[in-house]
Amino acid sequence: MSDQHEELHQPAAMVDEVSEFEVLELAVRELCIEKGLFSADDHRRWTEYMHTLGPAPAAHLVAKAWLDPEFKKTAVTDGVKASLDVGIDWVNSMPTNFGTPSDYCNLRVLEDTPTLKHVVVCTLCSCYPRPILGQSPEWYRTPNYRRRIVRWPRQVLAEFGLQLSADIEVRVEDSNQKSRFIVMPVRPEGTEGWTEDQLAEIVTRDCLIGVAVPQVGKTENDKRPVRPAVNPYKH
Amino acid sequence: MSKPHYDREHHVKKATGIGDPQCFKGEAGPAKFKVGDRVRVKDLPDIFYNRCQVYTRGATATVVELVYESPPAEDEAWDNCENPEWFYSLVFKQKDLWPDYSDTFANDTLETELSERWLEPA
Fold it and tell me: Is A131 helix (H, G, I), strand (E, B) or coil?
């Protein structure tokens, strides 16, 4: 039997690379299960729940606020309360009923204006409003984005295709305590008379992080470069 | 000798159904700073864990909001929840953080939150 034939019978790799942090997470998780802090079944249910989360509720929150000035006031002053109107209960939800160490219950909605543009980062690691925005994109967690966006925000935004003139104040929000942030962008022109669903479609995840602005006809995030694994797993 | 007993559930009991940081509301006492105050970030020693980014140390900022009360992360990391503090949202001029930041974009700012122990009047 040739080596090549042998290769054909190997199962395909599920991931290119397993990082040291993933190995650490596995080890800690198994210890927790062994010590009885939570069961393997708890972990499975939590993971499945996390995968049901996505940016749709946050997009609807923004669309609703564009349409209803009263709701906009609530959104800006009490994000947790406003989230209830789009079906997200920060407090009474899995797994703890008081938020989790990475999803404390203090959502702040950052309102952009024609002269102020917000962009969110967590320079410490990966704070992200998961209950209302789902899992963060890979680039959001990279040291590359975290280090550079605080120091060269305009250059990094330009890499995302967003070039802003000097009369617009760029405000970087470094979310490294217990507040979590979404950006409420300015409602674009050409959307007069649109319904909440139509508006929510153009409020993409990238708009809610602040690295993009909503555009008529654009309902998807731009593709980011995929870099090859540094230490590829050898099969 | 008996094994020491740690109450590992005190935080769960306190926060369930209320939320964190909401469960610490009213525990920090009167706030030392108010909205509009100018403050400087102290350069306290980095022993073990804290969340005060080095790039903010020594820089001056404006308080824009008193956001919540909570034990600071550097205490909470050791399960010490006995001394909650006020947390402030601070806005820095980018020029004050990065000396080489372009003058063309002198309006640019950065906002972040810090607890009271890290701040002194500027």
Answer: helix
The structural domains of chain B, ordered by start, are: 28-121 (2.30.30.50)
ipTM: 0.93
Are A208 and A59 in contact by the 8 Å Cβ rule? The answer is yes
Contacts of A92 in chain B (CB under 8 A): 17
Closest CA to B112 of B63, B68, B70, B72: B63
Strand pairing category for A107-111 and A180-184: parallel
pLDDT, tens only, A96-122: 777 665 668 999 999 999 999 999 999
Q: Does domain A54-209 have CATH number 3.40.50.1240?
A: no
DSSP E strand boundaries for chain B: 38-41, 60-70, 85-93, 109-115, 119-121
Block residue for tokens 């062994």: A34
> In chain A, which segments carry CATH 3.90.330.10?
54-209
Band of pLDDT at residue A170, cut at 50, 70 and 90: very high
- The winner for highest mean pLDDT among A107-111, A231-235, B18-22 is A107-111
Q: What pTM was computed for the model?
A: 0.90
Which residues from B are below 8 Å from A when comparing CB atoms?
A: 12, 15-23, 51, 53, 55, 67-68, 70, 73, 87, 89, 91, 94, 97-98, 101, 104-105, 107-115
Coil, helix or strand at residue A13: coil
Residue A111 is inside which H or E element, if any? strand A107-111
- CB contacts of B107 in chain A (<8 Å) are 166-167, 169
Q: Is B65 helix (H, G, I), strand (E, B) or coil?
A: strand
Q: Could you say which DSSP state residue B118 is in? A: G
